[in-house]
Structures are given as C-alpha cells and as structure tokens.
Amino acid sequence: MTLSNPFRRALQASCATALVLSLGLAGPAMAQDYSQAPELDEAVSAGDLPDIADRLPSEPEIVEPLDAVGTYGGTIRSALRGDQDHNGILLLVGAQGLVRWAPDFSGVVPNVAESWNVNEDNTEFTFHLREGMRWSDGETFSADDIVFAAELLADTEFMSNMPSRYVLADEPMEVEKVDDATVTVRFAAPYRNFLEELAKPLGQHLVLYARHYCEQFHPDYADPDALAAELEAAGTDSWAQLMRTKCADIELPTRWGNVDRPTLDPWVIEQPYTGGATQVTLTRNPYFWQVDTEGQQLPYADSLRFSIIADIESILLSTINGQFDYQVRHIFPISNRPVLFDNTEQGNFEIMDLTPLDSNFLGLYLNHSTDNAELRELFANRDFKAALSLGIDRVEVDEIIQLGQGAPWQIGPFEETKFYNEALGTQFTAHDVEEANRLLDDLGLTERDGDGFRLFENGERLSINAIVTIAKPTDVESLEIIREQWRDIGVELVISTSERSLFYERAQTNAYDISADTVPGAVNPTLDMRALAAVHPLESRMSIPWVNWYLSGGEGGEEPSENMKQRLELIDQLPTASSDEEADEIVAEVLSLAAEAFEVIGVSKRAPALGIRASNLGNVYEQMPYGWDYGTPGPALPQTWYFQ
Amino acid sequence: MLAFIVRRLLAAIPFMFLVSITVFILIQLPPGDFATSYAASLSAAGEYVDQNTIAELRARYGLNDPLIVQYFRWIGGILMGDFGYSFQWNSPVSELIGERMGLTVLLTFATVIFTWAVALPLGIYAAVHKYSIGDYIFTFIGFIGLAIPNFLLALVMMYFAVVWFGQDVSGLFSPEFRNAPWSWARMVDLGKHLIIPILVLGTASTAGMMRVMRANLLDQLHQPYVVTARAKGLSEARLLTRYPIRIALNPFVSTIGWLLPTLVSGEIITSIILSLPTAGPLLLQALLAQDYYLSGAFLLLLCMMTVVGTLISDILLVLLDPRIRYS
C-alpha cells in the first residue's frame, strides 16, 4: 500500500513531460492543425457538430502511437460473456480516470487531469484539468463535475459505504474546487498510493458523473415534477436507483445501458448492454480529447462491437473463425495455444503472449486457523510446510497444465523487480521426496496405515481437505496431480470442488484446510497483499479469522501469529512512511517475514496469457501486462489501434 | 365447460401462493447471497470487489434483512404487478423477461412443428410397416438421436459449420442484423440461423415422439374395430387417419401442456452453447447470481405456464377424444 520509488519517479517524469508538451504546443496548436475522422465531416458541414477545434480542449493530450500514425475507419470486434461481464467493455474502452497507467505498467501518467501536485506529506492532491475539455454530448467538463461526483459518493442515500479507495483512517476524502480547471482532494492521513488507486480500472468515480446530465435525477437539483415523472417511467420510487440506472454505477452493467449518458471515453455506447442484448456496440465520441502526433483526433477505429456469447468454447470457436479483431478475455489459458496456433491463417489473426501480473497461477493457502486441531499444529510448523512443498513436482504440474510455459515458484515479486525476495520466491521449490519424508518422520509422523498414508498420534490419517472452485478447471486438475504426488510423502489430499459461491462460503465459514487459488503480485506486491498478510476478508485464505481480528482492531476473529502481527503493524505504518526509501524498506520487511512464515505454497509462475489481434490491426502493444489492476488493454490505448 | 375452466383457475391461486414460497426458499437455499456470488464471479475473471462495495450491495438490496421480510417485499411487489428490479442488470425484471420471450416462443414453436412434422409420419410409417427395413432405419436413427446429448450435437455441428463452411452459426442473427429493424433480409438471416438450433433441439424429442407414436399405433392396429373396418372394405388410408391415428394422438395432446414451461427452461445448455438469446440462459445466470427478483419471476412464470398448459391439454383432450368427460 505504498507508492513505490520507480512509480514516484515515473510520475514526476510524466508531469514534466506533460508540462513540456503543453509548453511546446502552446504556440502552434491552432484549429487547422487538428483533423477528424471522415465520418464526422458531414455532421460538421451540416452544422450538427461544431468544428474540430471547438470540440477539443484548448490543449488536447498528444498521444504518440506505438508504431505508426494510423488511419481512420473500421470496427474493432470482440466478445463478451452473457452475464456480469460488463468489465470486458470497460477494459477495451479504457477507464478514463484522472490518471492512467503507463503502457508498460511502470507508473502513473496524466489522463483526464493534465498534471497534478502532491503536498509534502501525501495528504493533499491537486489536479489540473484540461481547459475546454468536453463530455461526449458537447457540454464542458470542469471541476464542478468532480465536486458533484464526490458529493454523490458521500451521499449515504446513493451509496451507504463510500468505496474504500476514497476513505482513509475512517475519514472520507474531501474534494474542493479551486477554480474551473483545478480541484484538490484531501485525506485525513498520508495516502501514498492514491494515484495508483485512481489508475486502476475502477478508480474512475471522480470523472464518471456528468453534472449537467445527472443533476436531473438528483432531488437536490432536479425539478421535482420532472424527477417524479422520470421515477414513474423507470418504475421505481428511489432516486438513487434511477441515478444508478441512468448515470452509472461503476460496478453494474447499467453503466453501459444508457445511450444518453455523457462520458469522457473514446467511444460511446450505441447498442446498450442489457439483459436481452446479443451484441453491444460503441461509436466514436466526437468530443474525445486526445490527438495523435499529427493532430488527428483519436480514436482511429470508428466503432467497437462486442458479440455476446455465453459459452467460452463458443467464444474460442468464433475466435478461430476470425470473427474478432482483439480478444484476450476468456480465451487466455495457455491450453488454447494449439488450437489458436493451427488457425492463425484461417482466422487471419496473430497470437499475442501477454505478461501475466499474477505471481503464481496456483497457490495453496494453508489455513492456519483450521478446525482440525492436529493439522493446525502442523501448519504452524515450518518443517511440515517445507515437506509439503518439497513433495510437489512443480515441473510435472507445469508440463501438464501449462504446457511447460511456467516455472517453479512460490509467491512474491519476480526476479527482475526491485522487491524480489529470493527466499519468498524460491524456497523449497525443488522436488525432493526423500527430504520431505525425512522432515515428516522427524515430526514424529512415522506411523502409516495400510494405504501408505501417515497417521496422527490419535491414529487418524493425515488427511488435508482442499477447497477449489470448478470455475477454474486448471486449478482442479493441478490439485489432482498434486494429490498423486503427495501420496509419495504419505499425505492424503482430499479435493472438495464446488461452484464458486460455495467456494467463497466455505472459506467464510472456515471449512477448509487448504484453499487453492491464484496469487497476485508478480510486479508490485503492494497493489494486492492478500497472500502476504491477513488483510483481505475474502481472499486472505491463510486465515480468515486473522483478517477479522485485524479489521476489527483485535476485537473479533482470532489472534494471529506473532510473525503475522508484525507484518500487519508494518502494513499499518506504510502510508505514513516519511520517504519512499522508508516505505520500500517496510515492504521488503513484510516480504521477509512472509517468507519466514511460509503460509502460502506456490506451484508455478503463470504461463503467458494468450490473446489474439487481427493481422491488420496496428499499434497493439503485444507485450502488455495482463491483469485486472492494469486493466488490459485500456492503458495500452486501444484508441490508437487502427486497421492497416 | 366454462365452469370447469373457472374452477381450475381459482384452484390455481392458492397453488401459486404455495409455489411462490417454495420458489423463494429454493432460491435462498444455496450458500451466500447476491453480493458474495457477485464477488465470486468477478474473482473468477481475475477481478475483485472492494469490501465497502460488498457491504453497499447488501444494504442496497436489503440482503441483510430477515428472509421473511425479503419474501414479503418481493411477493408484495408482484401482487401490485411489480416484479421488481434485477440486481444483476439494475433494470426492471419485466423488461428483461419480455425482451427474451419473443424469440423464445418462436424457437420453441418452430422446434415443436419440426418435431411433429418429422416424428408423426415416421412413427406412423414405422408402425404400419412394422419390422420392415424402413422401420429399422428410422428406429436406428431415432435411438441415436435419443442417445446423443443435445449440447454435444450442438458443439459438433458448430465446429463443422465453422471449419467446413466458414459460417458463424451461433446466435439467431448475423452481426449486421442483430439490432436492425425487421426486413425481408433479416427474416432470411433468422431462418438460416434457426436451422441448427431446430435440428439440435428437435432430434431428441423427435426420436422419443416417433417411438411413442409407433407404440401407440401398434396397440390400435390390432384392435377388433380395425379389423372390422378393414373387413367392411374401408380404404387403408382412410381407415388409418380416421380412427387409430386419432386415438394414438392422445398422448401427444396431453403433453402439449408441457410445452409451455419449456418456453422458459427448455434446453438451457444448448441455448448457452449456441448463444441463443432465449429465456433459458438468462434464468440460469439469474439463479447462479442469486438474483432472486429475476430468477423468482422466471420460476413463478414457469409454474404458471405449467398450470395453464395442463388446463389447455385437458380442454384439447376432450375435444379430441369423446370418451373423456369433465368431472
């Protein structure tokens, strides 16, 4: 939970660049320098749309395309699943927040905000907006919109809990308008990673609500009769419900369900995402605020089209049939490589190997609070965990599940990152049955039953119950391989597969010994620390009761181990660290402690995520990271993709 | 007859009430609620939800209230004609269901007509020409149709359509027609896309129905009245259509009632695989997401259709078979 060094540097550098760019362009940037897509010419000459210069901010963001300046036209086609897949739209359109990630995930760069200042102790963030920037309906975007959004978030009728990224030390953020193009966001305590939070796909709240449009659904601003009529028409008596339907809730599909909602996105919704939709289309936003280096307004592609296909195999089938120009979501597992490879020519696409941001494709989160008293004692013993880890033949699992594209790994940031901790990543990753058996024998687990499984002192079999969700078939298959491998060390693994809701429920009721799931954090361990400390109430499966203890301030749950308490204390100190160096030291110490505690046994680094792009789709950054925090492919700027 | 219908409809009211309770309890039985299932489904896609948002979802949809309160809020709305808002889509349930019903009805009836058009003549042929080569061939095909799971057939057909013909067969429309207004070209496009779903959905029931028709007709063909009619010199075609077939049709008519519920829940897996914009997949998603307003409305609809369908069957049976009387 810190702003790490390179991030801070990248951020300062980009501020400087933004400044240089804007200075450099202040002179020559004139109306005739900008050009627009030919499809807009007619509307402009008919007077339905203002001239390009009047649609762009006075200083639009100048984006340098990856490979070449593109040409206008075409539809980028992709696929969505039927339900709860609205984020698939968000990711391709790109989350247009105040800031965004650099394409290589190395730091935060300006986006809707042209630049920003942060005060000494990281409590106050001042954002400078682009003057003359417009919503997709042509109305001006200004600091008022941000203040309106902040008020909306703070309104308990609209949202009973403000999203936690805007709350620090139990105090919600304060947003103040300085002038039309400047806002200040204040926090009650130092907030080192606020900008990173804003760059994540859901960090977009502050620029999501167009005040001039959304006011008509808010009782404080709307004309009561008109609002009553709107409520009547929508069949609800709650203005908050209406607001969410009309003006978006970041977490709900309705965000893409209202064609009238003004946005700052490169494309705006044309055929909405609703329960009955079979496809979703978006068309060019004529007021989009980015241009390329030759002054051509972005985006290049005229439109986006998502086909809604409920079944993943059908998505794959359509992909090999060449029906999509870009697809990663749903087809990314490495096991699809052969079928994709065989059909590149027929489908006229290229395969992309995206860099996954997960630290491990499968981690075994050992439940340190399991109800099984004997096991609980063993899980507290590092030798026992070492034996379990040595008993896994990671190369075999990787060969079978990931076509050998991964590599044996525990958890934590990779070698090439600055937080790399050798012990955390590589301890006990060898396959050494002899040593594992010796460790287990030394623990006094020498008795075996007729099937060769070790017995506890009370005569019961050493049997470990692992929960896993069928939503991730590769996880189940991996566990089945590990079950066979653990036979050799006399440990029985019982696999309880379940539908995903039950998987969560079992974790919440502490009904498991091992929970098998992904481990995040290959690059920046601070973005999601679920596997490093008991901080995440759903996902920190090394002990949910510990999380409850931590989140309740020691009142509920169960008291964690000493080592874990130290880590939690350190994490609490992170935001108030006086310097980047100090923050980095804290993170490093958390990682060392986690390595010592060894609560999560990793299997293998994740193989590259597979994606495809149409052979003639240019400017696609093929090595882009693949992960939710990054929001693939948004930060790689799909608005600069074009058909060659 | 009118009195019979009214009586049946009145009896349906308490029945529907009991159904609503059962449905609600069944929907609530799986562990967790909409908020956890939402978090779980996002997590499966590598995304995650912030804790406050989960708490917010629970508060917003009243998921923390006791079940009984939730039930009365739901059923109360329905009594007022308001099926509520779907959690998942944040839009009125009636709109969601309405959107999908048209194509569902079309597909179901097209499939039924296909099934009958194929099964009845073949069944009659097989019965009349018992143990002939034709009988064996149709029986063989019929058993294969019964044995292959529909979803597998769908996958195989889709694969060959793509690999051999380079044709996209998923969905009911090509992309350019999906949201276009109705036109001749769009109808043709729909017709093309209907072929595979109808074949896939039709095969299994065709096979079953063919066997039933054959068996029923065989029972009749050896009845004394058939022999008598034949002895009196009635032509074979006339004899068959007049009497034995009419009676053999009896089981078909009594199963018409079962057609209506399949409008909602029929062939969910096949629909998902073929990406058909029908009601089934929406119901499944709603159940998985524990979106009880949407799934509850669907299930109530399902039960209501069963009640109405059975009633229709009963009425038709009387019309067809003079031996049956209202009582």
Radius of gyration of chain A: 26 Å
The strands making up the biggest β-sheet of chain A line up spatially as 19-18-20-17-21
- What fraction of residues of chain B sit in β-strands? under 5%
Unreliable runs of chain B: none
Number of strands of chain A: 25
The proportion of strand residues of chain A reads 15-25%
Q: On the 0-100 scale, what is the average pLDDT of chain A?
A: 89
**Could you report the average pLDDT of chain B, rounded to the nearest whole number?**
83
Biggest sheet of chain B: strands, sense, closure? Answer: none
- At CATH level 2, the architecture of the domain at 100-282 in chain B is Orthogonal Bundle
Explain this structure to me?
The complex is a heterodimer of chains A (644) and B (327). With 644 residues, chain A is α+β, with helices and mostly antiparallel strands. Helix content of chain A is 32%, strand content 18%. In chain B, helix 1 (2-28) packs antiparallel against helix 16, helix 2 runs antiparallel to helix 3 and helix 5 packs parallel to helix 16. Chain B has helices at 2-28, 34-44, 51-60, 67-79, 93-128, 133-147, 150-165, 184-221, 224-231, 236-242, 244-248, 250-254, 256-265, 268-273, 279-288, 292-320. Chain B is mostly helical. Chain B has a domain at 100-282: Orthogonal Bundle (MetI-like fold). The mean pLDDT of chain B is 83. Chain B is globular. Chains A and B meet through helix 9, strand 14, helix 10 and helix 19 of A and helix 2, helix 3, helix 5, helix 7 and helix 14 of B.
